[in-house]
Write a structure and sequence with these properties.
There is one protein chain. The protein is 28% helix and 34% strand. The protein is an alpha+beta fold. A hairpin with a 3-residue loop joins β1 and β2. The chain is built from 8 helices and 12 strands. A 12-stranded mixed sheet has the order 7-8-9-10-11-1-2-3-4-5-6-12.
């Protein structure tokens, strides 16, 4: 492998890891994803900071009251165990499992397994089929495999500072910090509250728990459907979001349990870590 090819390979793996870590949490395209300033799943739905004239009418009535109770209860819980699967068209599919907290920014640890797509194939060819992601309020870290470490002076971890990602050339990381910091189960409820067609689908059993199923369609430039299943404590048990990216259909399904669980999020050793921004600069990317 030539020096130029090796440098491109390292840079490609770093960007692929960034995409996987962000997708596992947000469902959004992140770097190299949908190419839009996205909501939790790559939609162009109006954000909470959008001008009042651009927001849809606020949902009112019993449905709104019920969903706001879910938003409050889930937000107050502060943490949960998470299992999710995400498919981003032809680009990437993955599974993630771990625990996340949101009392003071996003924290937690997920094990992310590549299950398909062009990104997964690239990573597999380079010896990486799964990685650990650690989320802290200012940055997140991805632990790559030994083969990657061999190309990078023995260091396994890549550090992605949110503000650095915002500054990526071409605006690839636009809104990235806000997306990652606001990744909590109640964000799906906030998104659903902007839907004009919210409806209570009915009562269902979800993973052995009696739940109420809600559904709605939100959208800006692209439409997105959001479904949530809520237990008798007004806590999310399941969430499904569907939309589109430039590479095809995007679907994310997440299950939540053990609300209030203690969430470890230790910063990896500095000696075993390289900074993403510095890495790209050194690769000439």
């Amino acid at each position: 492998m030539t020096g130029t090819t090796a440098r491109r390979t390292v840079a490609s793996m770093a960007v692929s890891a960034a995409l996987a870590c962000s997708t596992a949490c947000t469902g959004a395209g992140g770097p190299g994803g949908s190419g839009e300033s996205t909501g939790p799943i790559g939609s162009a739905a109006p954000s909470a900071s959008a001008p009042p004239s651009s927001r849809p009418p606020a949902l009112t009535g019993p449905s709104a009251d019920a969903l706001r109770a879910v938003e409050r209860a889930t937000g107050r819980a502060g943490s949960a165990r998470v299992e999710s699967t995400t498919v981003m068209g032809r680009e990437l599919s993955l599974a993630a499992e771990g625990a996340l907290g949101w009392d003071d920014g996003l924290t937690g640890t997920l094990t992310i397994t590549y299950t398909g797509g062009t990104t997964a194939e690239t990573m597999r060819r380079l010896g990486t089929t799964a990685m650990e992601a650690r989320y802290l309020p200012d940055a997140y870290y991805a632990r790559m495999g030994d083969e990657f470490a061999e190309r990078l002076d023995g260091r396994h971890w890549i550090k992605y500072v949110y503000e650095d990602l915002e500054d990526l050339d071409g605006g690839a990381g636009a809104g990235f910090a806000d997306q990652m910091r606001s990744t909590t189960p109640n964000q799906a409820v906030k998104l659903l509250l902007t839907a004009g067609d919210v409806r209570k689908v009915g009562e269902e059993t979800t993973r052995g728990r009696r739940t109420t199923h809600w559904s709605g369609t939100v959208g800006g430039a692209t439409e997105q459907t959001v479904d949530i299943w809520v237990d008798d404590r007004a806590l999310l048990v399941k969430k499904v979001e569907r939309g589109r990216t430039k590479t095809g259909e995007l679907t994310q399904t997440a299950y939540y349990s053990d609300y209030g669980v203690t969430v470890p999020a230790a910063r990896p050793p500095a000696a075993d870590t390289t900074d993403f921004k510095e890495l790209l600069a050194s690769q000439g990317s």
